[in-house]
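Quick bug: VAS1L protein output formatted oddly.
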Amino acid sequence: LSLKFGDIGNLKGLVIRFLLTTSYYQLSVQNWFSLHRLQLLYNHSIQATFNATRIYAPASYSYHCEHVSSLQRYDALLIPSSANDLSKLWEVTFIDFQIQGFNIQEGHFAYAKDCASFFSTAILMGMVMSLILLLVLAYALHMLIHLKSLDRHYECKASPAYFAQMKDNDLGDEKEPLRSSGSESYELRNQQFCKIYI
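Here's what came back:
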């Protein structure tokens, strides 16, 4: 597939050539096309050649990408074919790139396979946050399961008052049984100090 621009400034006969290949894959049971190589021609000779990576789609689809470039900041889908030729001196960037080499109907692009990967930055951050929340929930459940209840005894102390020894006759008026079964416990009515043993 060739895009001919003609003469642009000092560039005589500028042509951008896309070399596309098609292959049949048994796993997907369909033909796929891929951009194999990109060539820049002017002055009737090839000046730069770039190998394309990860630019492919089913043959009945088109391929779309926001940036197809030889620059690292755009993920460098175009790689100079050799360090010895002039390709490393060129910087090529296509914006809103869409290509379809086969099965073109009525001069329109078919449904596009986009280059955006499934694990984009936003999806990855969402998965990390979900994992953090899941760990916090698991830790909270672990703490609830291992929460120990006060099954031995319960003590409350409202005031650290000192209680003098009472006489036996006064003790009968001041004490009141709390429970009749098992061991007996007594509560002092007039003091803010209690001990309840279970």
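Actually, after a second look the formatting is fine. The mean pLDDT is 77. Closing.
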